Amino acid sequence: MSTSTQITEQQARAVAEEAREAGWDRPSFCKELFLGRFPLELIHPHPRADPADAAAGAAFLDRLRAYCASIDGGAIEREARIPDECVQGLAELGCFGIKIPVEYGGLGLSQVVYGRALALVGSVHASLGALLSAHQSIGVPEPLKLAGTPAQKREFLPRCARGAVSAFLLTEPDVGSDPARLRTSAAPTDDGGYLIDGTKLWTTNGVVAELLVVMARVPSHAGGPGGVSAFVVEADSPGITVEHRNAFMGLRGIENGVTHFDQVRVPAQNRIGNEGDGLRIALATLNTGRLSLPAMCAGAGKWSLKIAREWSAERVQWGRPVGEHEAVATKIAFIAATTFAMEAVLDLSGHLADEGRKDIRIEAAVAKLWTSEMACRIADELVQIRGGRGYETADSLAARGERAVPAEQMLRDLRINRIFEGSSEIMRLLIAREAVDTHLNAAGDLADPEADLTHKAKSAAHASGFYARWLPQLATGPGLLPTSYREFGALAPTCATPSGPRASSLARRSTRWRAGRRHWRSGRGSSAGSSTSVPSSSRSPRPACVPN
Ligand SMILES: Cc1cc2nc3c(=O)[nH]c(=O)nc-3n(C[C@H](O)[C@H](O)[C@H](O)COP(=O)(O)OP(=O)(O)OC[C@H]3O[C@@H](n4cnc5c(N)ncnc54)[C@H](O)[C@@H]3O)c2cc1C
User: Which of 11, 17, 177 to mutate to test the pocket of ligand 1 (most atoms within 8 A of CB)?
Assistant: First the structure.
C-alpha cells in the first residue's frame, strides 16, 4: 500500500477487509438473527456473574458512588478541566485498572462492573467517563490484554493500574473513518527499533498521558513485512510535542490534543503484535471497547429520567403538573422505556463479553449505534420537558437561585458519541458487512463485477447448495408453533418468529411478515385487538427483542 493520500475506494475497502476478523470461532446471537434464526439459548437464561465477583464489584461501586458524591461536576464544566486531585482520587480507588487482572495490580473486575462504574462517573461529568474509557477501553490496557507479550503486560499494566493515564492515537488530520490513509510512519532502525514521524489528531487523554498506543505504518523492509502496526510509546520520549489542546461543544474537561512525532525512538519490544497487525488489534480492541459508550448513554438516560420525573411533577402549567399533560407524559414514557432497553442491551452485552464464549462484535456495534442515537434523543426530550430551563446553563440557573440542572450540557456532551469510536454511519456499514458475511462467503463472487466466469460458475454451484438449505428454514422451525416461547407469557408473540430481522432479501422479509400474521391468527392476539397486554405498537412483524 502506498503511503500517498491518493487512496481509491477499492484500496480503502481492501484495508478494512484485511483488518477485519475473518473467522467466527464462537457463536454470535446477532449474526444468527441476520441469518433468519433466533438462537434464544445464546442469551437465555440471562448470563449471570460469579457471586464472589459480583460481591467484589458491588463493594467497589459503593466506594466509587461515595467518592462521586464529593466531585463537583459543575467545576469541571466551568474550568474545562478535571482537577488533579480528582484524577488522583479515582486512581486511589483503582479506577484506572478496573478490568486489569489482579496479578498486574488491577482490580480484576468484570466488563459489567466497568460499565456501571463508567455510568456512575459519567453522571457526575461526562469527561470523567471519557478519561477512564479512553485509558482503559482503547488506551494501553486493552490492546495489551489482547495481544501483548507477558513482558509487556508485566512492564505496562501495573503502571496503568496505578494511574499512569494512557491514550489511543489512530486519527490523523487526513485519517478519520478510513484508516487506509494513515500517514504516520515507523521506520525500522539498525538496532531493531523504530523511528516514528507524524501527527495525530484528537488524542483523548493525549495532553496528560504517560503512555500512548500509537498506530503507525512500517514500510516493508528486509527484517519484516511492514504495514500498520501498534506501539506503546512513553509520552515523554524526546521528539513528542503536544501542539494544541482542543476544545469541543461538549466534554469540556477532556485533555484532547494534537500530538506531533518527530523522529521518536521506540524499542522493538514496544511493538504490540506483529508488524502489520495494528489495525486488526485496533478493531479487536474496539469490539469490547465500544461497550463503554452504551454504559455512559445508559447512565445519561437514568439521570434524564430522574430529572424529567422530578421536574414534570413539580412544574405546574395550565392547572396541572406538566407531566400530566399527555405530550409530556409521552416523552417521559419514551425516556423510561428507552433507558430500560439501553441498560438491558448494555447488561447483556457486558455479560456476554465477560463470559468470553460468544462473538460479540455485532452486539457491541449495535449497542454503540443504538444507544448513542437514543441517548441524544432522550437528552433532547429532557431539554424540551424542562422548557426554557432546559436551554439555560446550570450556572445561570444557580445564579438566579434555581436548581443547577445541566440539561443543555448533557445534550452537548452526548452528541460526540454518534461520531467517535466508529460513527453511526460506519457502525451501520460494519454491522451490514458482518451481517452478510455468510452470504458473501456463499455467493460473493456472483455479485463481484471483477470475478471471472470460472469463479462465478463455481460460486453459483456453491450458492445453490447453500440457499437450498437456508431458504426453507425461513418458513419452518419451532418458532412458528403457537406454543413456542410460552415462558415469556404475554410478550411471547413478539419473539415468536424464526425468520431474521435483517435477512437481506425482500422475499425473506415478506416471509417474516407472513410468519408474524400467522401468529396473530393462532390466538396470540390479532391486529384488531388482542387478549394479551402487548401494546399495539409492538405488534409489528419485527421481533421486539431486536434493537434496530
Ligand atoms: C472529542 C473527540 C475525541 C476523540 N478521541 C479520539 C481518540 O482518543 N483517538 C483517536 O484515534 N481518535 C479520536 N477521535 C477521532 C474520532 O474517532 C473521529 O472523529 C471519527 O473516527 C470520525 O472521523 P472524522 O471526524 O475524520 O470523520 P470522517 O471520517 O472524515 O467522516 C465525516 C463524515 O462522513 C461519514 N463517513 C465517512 N466515511 C463514510 C462511509 N464510507 N460511508 C458513509 N459515511 C461515511 C462519517 O460518518 C462522518 O459523518 C476523537 C474525536 C473527537 C471529536
Answer: 177
